[in-house]
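Hi W., the fructose -6-phosphate complex you wanted:
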Amino acid sequence: MCGIIGYIGKENSIKHLIEGLRALEYRGYDSAGIAYFDENNSLHSVKAAGRLANVEAKLADKPVSHCGIGHTRWATHGAPSDVNSHPHGTASLRIVHNGIVENYASIREELTGLGYTFESDTDTEVAAKLLDYYYKEEKLTAHAAIERMTSRLVGSWALGILFADTPNVIWCARKGSPLIIGVGEDENFIASDITAILKRTRNYYQLDEGEIAKVTRDTVTVWQGEKTVEKPLLTADWDIEAAERGGFAHFMIKEINEEPSAIRTTLGCRIKNGLPDFASDAFDVGIFKKVTRVHIVACGTAMHAGLIAKGAFASLAKLPCEVEIASEFRYNDPLIGEGDLVIIISQSGETADSLAALRLSKEKGAATLAIVNVIGSSIAREADSVIYTMAGPEIAVASTKAYSVQTALMYLLVIGAAMTRGKLDADSARSKVTELYERAPEAVAEMIARENEIGSHCKWLAEAEDLFYIGRGADYHLACEGSLKLKEISYIHSEAYAAGELKHGTISLITEGVPVIALCTVPSLCEKMVSNIRETTARGAKALIICSHDAEIADDTASHIIRLPKIASELAFLPAVTVLQLIAYHTAAARGCDIDKPRNLAKSVTVE
Ligand code: F6R
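Structure:
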């Protein structure tokens, strides 16, 4: 998704804009650009389709500047091209924009009637020219013109704005798309996320919905309507090393390697006397005694993490739990209200559909809890309660460590729920917590140490055009995640299937040489899984089995078998998902794919 950076301070802004945009590359983009004031306070724009290097090439004369804004664009309105890249503007101003202006067509018509012409196909140029109209033609102040312009827009925006006649100010505004203001020494920033500015500062203000801010080198003023607001200064507990590759070939493999420590960090502060304790999150597990149903709503990988939690809610806490895709949730007339707890799981905390689901749940009277990785993100702030995962920044587009910490944290939460509902005694709970906190990260680390062995299974997978992931129960939910991971970074078509459902149609697609990855970590389902695997190999499938250490599976059942380390079967999902992530990673690597930046995908999906 698009990225925004802005710098104002004593150093050369060009360097910081490029560095910031480079740090934002992971969000996905197809063009980039900057606007800056030169030493004579003239306003310039440089923009180009393609990689950031194309913008840098256009800056070969190394201009000196102390104030500028930059943008990486992910095309929505208009193809990726130099002219459609941001910034957009007029002689009087430049803007960069994340989000979508839904009513741009009617405003464009209106502005055309007023004599404005347009060179791009973008919605952002319309916003820029509308702002120009209020600033130049109606002669409103900068603040009033921004207020007026945004009041006309329907949609979502994070905006960075430079006015040609005030070279010492960056303006910004937010509705629906995240934006922060970084506070440094003798310098300030605006950014769409903290990773863009971590090299310079960890202190920031989070802009709230509808706010407009004026940022100079040493001041930050924020308005909500006519009133100025005092904002709390937040501090990110991530350091720059966490947002750099640190010798790994890709962020994805670095982040897989961080899973054991991320799980321990996330769980450690929520365990007291060997039992779950969420007091430091101000979350009272007593709520699980009152609620009659839990709904987990999320997207993609986070939704798959919810599926694992659903099984745990049923088996341990005996509490009904539904998992819903956030983009479907509000269109399915959800039957929720008082007595329901809606849990939103989100790494970024900014996913538009998940945020909309949260707002709807609150409107309907449900209690809400956010499981979120990014401190101060929209979902974290709007939910009734929040429990932060502590995965550190996840940069690779393919989510890995976030899933591991989400599932581990949810499992701890369910143990707490089971105890409070009288379904689990303290001793049993304690031994489950020990296995989760002590053994699970070790088991994950053991699989990471076997990376070469796992990678060696991927050469033949890399040649496939289609493949299947199958499993039953929790293994089916793991299969969904394994399949998603493979698709997104290797571009191999794959399907996750409930193993028992294959023969109801899909098995017709299993022919000679089709790879089938079979998950087999649930002991009670192992025998049935073996029958399902044999159904596929009998039709020529080449099977790879991932199973528990002692699963009774004969060597001739499949071409390849990866046995997980010893671990309680209900926690086998943690080392198993690491294997699935490593398979996706090495298969994509064998195909020469751009692993950290898969085509057409964005890290944080802030539009519906
Ligand atoms: C897949 C992936 C996505 C995200 C989804 C939700 O690897 O990263 O499927 O899981 O877009 O994002 P968050 O968790 O930020 O709400």
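The chain has three domains: 3-240, 251-449, 452-590.

W.
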